[in-house]
Write a structure and sequence with these properties.
Distance between the termini: 137 Å
Low-confidence stretches: none
Number of helices: 25
Structural class: alpha+beta
CATH class of the largest domain: Alpha Beta
Membrane topology: Single-pass membrane protein
Radius of gyration: 35 Å
Shape: elongated
Transmembrane segments: 21-41
Protein name: Penicillin-binding protein 2
Mean pLDDT: 88
Number of domains: 2
CATH superfamily of the largest domain: DD-peptidase/beta-lactamase superfamily
GO molecular function, one term: peptidoglycan L,D-transpeptidase activity
CATH architecture of the largest domain: 3-Layer(aba) Sandwich
EC number: 3.4.16.4
Length: 690
């Protein structure tokens, strides 16, 4: 049976058509609303974005590295400044047809084959947007030759800007540090486009790193109108950069340079402090690297040369070096004795040796000094006097005075590498070694050996506080000077006794007679010291102790000095350590160097005359000696091409493996010399004569 079909009427057809039309119209209206909304969003809400994109198609903007703020000395003399620089870099990510571009650059810039090899190696190790230096310090003709051929040189970035310069060279290396190209890790932290701008450099070490925020400034921008194909149409208004702030130091640039030169061929350091304010006038560590070379980008070969040098030029010995202060602590020990009620006229008989228990502790003078009071014990640097007095008193009565005058302290200075040494006592040893303090520990500490460690800055602070009687705090930034230091809680008559003894060390027949100043009306008060770095066996003592000149460099004693001048009205204080100097060369020994550095502050002509005479026998000035060393090293190494490639700044001098190795070696030596039954005090060699 066939069912009845649906009847379609005219009315139902009209209704169906109307519904479809309505749905279709609604859909069209919805699409229209979406399009209108999108257009409104783009034209209103996203107006700024698309205007910027449109503008960027028409205008190319290039960041201009800001001029870095100068670092100047107390008189405004530049220590780090800027020079006009024409340079060419390559941005690897934008480089196309590398071989053709490099060949054209070699012809335009007249680059030698070894330099082209260096550029190729640098490009192979570069990443992304990190610029690779092609050449800097270009003359205008070569710079212009590249600039006019830019359409043929994709990825090449010629820049006219400013490069960092250090007029003092190596003399200021460990003071200023240096600037260098930011590395990839630094860019990833901030994604600051300035960090990948050709020609931009930031502080890598020293004050350049610690004062980066103040010195950097704000980038400028160069705008040019171009066609869709990148062809230049017109140069638009350029936004100028905002230079960084000038950092004024308390340093005297002339004294800094003189002290660096006067250290000669030593591996050593010196600090000079103003006894009225605590301002640091010089902070020198030598030998050192040339910060100009580091800022340009040193080669692997130069880095290896510096790393191999047993004088460790990569180390800032002022802040990173720790040494036994030797006999330079004896004036401080004298203060501790006087403050504890010891009669300054009480005498101790020095026969040359002192038996304590089963041990025999020697004086540096084998035949002994005879009976000595406090003043003469300091003047003659008698070990037996201090062994005996501090054995009676206990070193726990000395340690607080040592800290009061600056030993063991970390100072508020813009250096990230400051090590602050050790002032030991019974509580310290118990906490660190879980062991009780012994008499041998006291005897070791009494002559500035054993667990006692200090850096040259602390020695200078100690000298300045004894000289002034005030709690001076060292400063190196001119706007952070700690003025009006409070008086030390010490009796003035005790300070006077110790100052008089230090005057006698240099001017009254004491151990530091070589430091006597020749400037009329100015006397230097000081204390010499010898810090032992090896154990002298009884067998060697019986056969005759070897002279320092007979020993390898690393086994020679350190030469130490601290003092102040004028003795009757202290104005300047000095602290100095000469590593493994061994008192082997008279005009390179600590007393004469300290004398000349202090003389510079009162009589520059006399000081310069002394320096000129000495430099003739040392192989010339710093630059001449460094050039000769580099030439000899290069000839011996016969470097392969990769050795001349630019070293990255991932590791900076203060963090170099060579510095860590030197520190580890010094720590191991110190630990060996405080082993029970193996103490330096038993040798008594803190003032061995040359």
């Amino acid at each position: 049976m066939i069912g009845r079909g649906r009847v379609v009427t005219e009315m139902s057809q009209a209704y169906s058509f109307s519904r479809r039309a309505w749905l279709l119209g609604a859909a069209q209206g919805g699409v229209g609303l979406l399009l209108a909304g999108r257009m409104a969003w783009i034209s209103v809400a996203q107006n700024e974005r698309y205007t910027s994109l449109s503008e960027s198609n028409r205008v190319n903007m290039t960041l201009l590295p800001p001029r870095r703020g100068w670092i100047v000395d107390r008189h405004g003399v530049p220590i780090a400044n800027n020079r006009t620089d024409f340079r060419v870099d390559i941005v690897p990510e934008r480089l196309r047809d590398k071989d053709r571009v490099l060949a054209l650059l070699a012809r335009l810039l007249q680059l030698p084959p070894e330099e082209m090899e260096r550029i190729r190696i640098d490009l192979d190790h570069a990443s992304g947007l990190q610029p690779v230096q092609v050449a800097e310090n270009l003359d205008w003709e070569r710079f212009a030759a590249v600039s006019v051929r830019l359409p043929e040189l994709p990825g090449v970035a010629p820049t006219r800007g400013f490069a960092r310069a250090y007029p003092g060279g190596a003399a200021v290396a460990h003071l200023t540090g240096y600037v260098g190209v930011p590395n990839v890790e630094q860019y990833k932290k901030t994604h600051d486009p300035l960090l990948v701008t050709p020609g931009f450099k930031l502080g890598k070490d020293g004050l350049e790193k610690m004062l980066e925020t103040e010195l950097r400034g704000q980038a400028g921008a160069k705008r040019v109108e171009v066609t869709a194909r990148g062809k230049l149409v017109a140069e638009l208004a350029t936004r100028p950069d905002v230079p960084g702030k000038t950092a004024r130091l308390t340093i005297d640039a002339g004294l800094q340079d003189y002290a660096a030169r006067r250290l000669g061929t030593n591996s050593g350091s010196a600090v000079v402090i103003d006894c009225r304010t605590g301002e640091m006038l010089a902070m020198v560590s030598m030998p050192a690297y040339d910060p100009n070379s580091f800022s340009d980008g040193i080669s692997h070969l130069e880095w290896q040369m510096l790393s191999d040098d047993d004088h460790v030029p990569l180390m800032n010995k002022v802040t990173q070096g720790l040494y036994p202060p030797g006999s330079t602590v004896k004036p401080m020990n004298g203060l501790a004795l006087l403050e504890s009620g010891v009669d300054p006229h009480a005498r101790v008989f020095c026969s040359g040796a002192l038996r304590v228990g089963t041990g025999i502790f020697h004086c540096h003078k084998k035949s002994g000094h005879g009976p000595l009071d406090l003043k003469n014990a300091i003047m003659q640097s008698c070990d037996i006097y201090f062994y005996e007095m501090i054995r009676r008193l206990g070193y726990d009565r000395v340690a607080p005075i040592a800290r009061m005058v600056g030993l063991g302290q970390k100072f508020d200075l813009p250096f990230s590498t400051q090590r602050f040494g050790t002032v030991p006592d019974s509580a310290w040893k118990l906490k660190k070694y879980k062991d009780a303090w012994t008499v041998a520990d006291s005897l070791n500490a009494s002559i500035g050996q054993g667990y006692v460690l200090a850096n040259p800055l602390q020695l200078a602070v100690m000298a300045s506080r004894i000289a002034s009687g005030r709690h001076l705090r060292p400063s190196i930034l001119a706007d952070h000077v700690h003025r009006d230091a409070p008086a030390l809680p010490l009796q003035s008559e005790n300070l006077a006794i110790v100052r008089d003894a230090m005057f006698g060390v240099v001017n009254g027949g004491g151990t530091g007679g070589a430091a006597r100043m020749l400037t009329p009306g100015v006397a230097l008060a000081g204390k010499t010291g010898t810090a032992q770095v090896r154990r002298i066996t009884m067998a060697e003592r019986r056969s005759g102790v070897l002279k320092n000149g007979q020993l390898p460099f690393k086994l020679r004693d350190h030469a130490v000095f601290m003092g102040f001048a004028p003795a009757d009205n202290p104005r300047y204080a000095i602290g100095m350590v000469l590593e493994h100097n061994g008192h082997t060369v008279r005009n390179l020994d600590s007393p004469l160097i300290a004398r000349d550095i202090m003389t510079y502050l009162f009589d520059k002509d006399r000081a310069m005359a002394s320096l000129a005479e000495g430099e003739k026998s040392w192989g010339g000035d710093i630059q001449t000696r460094m050039a000769a060393t580099a030439s000899t090293y290069r000839a011996a190494q016969a470097p392969h091409p990769a050795a001349i490639a630019t070293k990255t700044d991932a590791i900076v001098p203060s963090d170099a493996p060579a510095v860590e190795n030197a520190t580890d070696q010094a720590n191991a030596t110190q630990a060996a010399l405080v082993t029970p039954g193996n103490t330096v005090a038993e040798d008594g060699t803190t003032e061995r004569e040359p």
